[in-house]
Design a protein that fits this description.
With 403 residues, this protein is mainly α. It is 79% helix and 0% strand.
């Protein structure tokens, strides 16, 4: 990690993305709050989060875009476009303007997907393979920490000055991010492919998915996360039942548990690079799945203490298995395919998670929440065991480097 922090180019990228993500976290929560206040409908507020997820279904297209241009240039253009898009919120005045909020939200979802893939590809070019885990871990800790600070900032600005002020704040962070990226000169990056180097459009479009599913290590790692998150999606609706029925507390207590989870996630991002160096990506992911198992199981007794400790364990686990899997994809993917591989990974993981959340909203009315948590904990334990015993996975190259 010290070597990373001595790298001026990495520090510039980290600074720019920090400022960028502050604006993101501040705006996203405010969009849902504003829609709720504008319409009085929880369902309409939920549409905001659905629209942010829609771009996952267009992963092949956004991934191909990221792989067609230098990632630094892609980040600059993406930040400028997103900053202009957000200014559209200044036009919102009454419920009839709700469509503007939804258009901005959908566009923001695409911008976030491009941002994540382009930054991942740029990191792959800038950072040696042996340090990718630590670099991804630092960004994960940053993102998780801003999940706590960003919404508080956004809500405070919104309450004091309104939606337009939050939009201007976010646009300002995009412009600062662009200035920092302009300073990031002579950083190793993807050279724009020449026309004769490109394949057929359809083949290029699905190349990321084919790469993920065609590589035994990547297929096993990504599908393991997809299976685990498919079980985790059931827990989101059950959390309300655990707090209200199990603890006898109002739903707002979820925010307290969320604070413990956020603290665990920050810690997980800091330690995951060290774990990857010592154990390799697959075994590190298994550690993350095992921590999730423990966290989910701790909810079953349902006391204030076990729920808060559960939040720490679950928060700690998520960046561990997610960063390990992302690093594995980056390490086993050539530079020109990074965007498509990373967006394909996100799509494969997101689909079962979204579907299981929908199923969980129905199941929680039929089954006691403890049963749901027990099932999810068992699923995570099974995934952890599978990752450890799957014979087709050979020892990660990172282990031999560490030794």
């Amino acid at each position: 990690m010290r070597q990373l922090l001595r790298d001026r180019r990495f520090l510039l990228l980290f600074l720019g993305q920090t400022i960028n993500m502050v604006g993101d976290r501040a705006l996203l929560v405010v969009l849902a709050i504003y829609v709720k206040e504008l319409t009085g409908s929880d369902a309409m507020a939920g549409v905001v989060f659905v629209l942010l997820s829609v771009p996952s279904f267009f992963a092949p297209l956004t991934g191909l875009l990221v792989d067609r241009f230098p990632r630094r240039l892609t980040l600059i253009v993406n930040d400028l476009a997103a900053g202009v898009l957000v200014l559209g919120l200044l036009l919102v005045r009454h419920p009839g303007d709700l469509w503007i909020v939804f258009v901005v939200t959908l566009g923001y979802g695409f911008a976030n997907q491009i941002f994540t893939a382009a930054r991942g590809g740029l990191l792959h070019s800038m950072v040696p393979d042996g340090m990718l885990g630590e670099a991804n871990g630092l960004f994960s800790s940053l993102g998780q920490g801003l999940r706590i600070f960003g919404p508080l900032l956004g809500a405070a600005v919104y309450a004091s000055l309104g939606l337009g002020a939050v939009a201007l704040l976010d646009t300002g962070t995009f412009l600062v991010s662009v200035l920092v990226l302009l300073m990031l000169r002579r950083a190793p990056d993807l050279a724009r492919p020449q026309p004769h180097e490109r394949g057929r459009f359809r083949a290029d479009l699905v190349a990321g998915v084919r790469h993920i599913l065609g590589d035994r290590e990547l297929r096993g790692g990504v599908l393991a996360v997809a299976a685990a998150l498919g079980a985790a999606g059931l827990v989101n609706p059950a959390m309300f039942a655990a707090v209200e029925q199990g603890l006898g507390r109002p739903a707002a207590f979820i925010g307290v548990i969320g604070a413990f989870q956020g603290a665990g996630s920050v810690a997980g991002g800091f330690v995951v690079g060290r774990l990857i160096r010592r154990f390799g990506e697959h075994r590190t992911a298994a550690i993350g799945f095992a921590l999730s198992t423990a966290g989910l199981a701790l909810v079953i007794p349902t006391t204030d203490v076990t729920m808060c400790v559960a939040g720490i364990f679950v928060g700690l686990s998520i960046p561990i298995f997610m960063v390990a899997t992302t690093t594995l994809v980056q390490r086993r993917t050539e530079s020109g395919l990074q965007g498509r591989a990373l967006t394909a990974m996100d799509a494969v993981i997101d689909l079962p998670f979204v579907l299981s959340m929908a199923a969980g909203a129905w199941i929680v009315g039929l089954v006691e929440y403890r049963v749901i948590y027990a099932f999810s904990a068992t699923a995570f334990a099974a995934v952890a065991a599978y990752v450890l015993v799957a014979r087709q996975w050979r020892v990660d190259a990172s282990i031999s480097h560490a030794n």
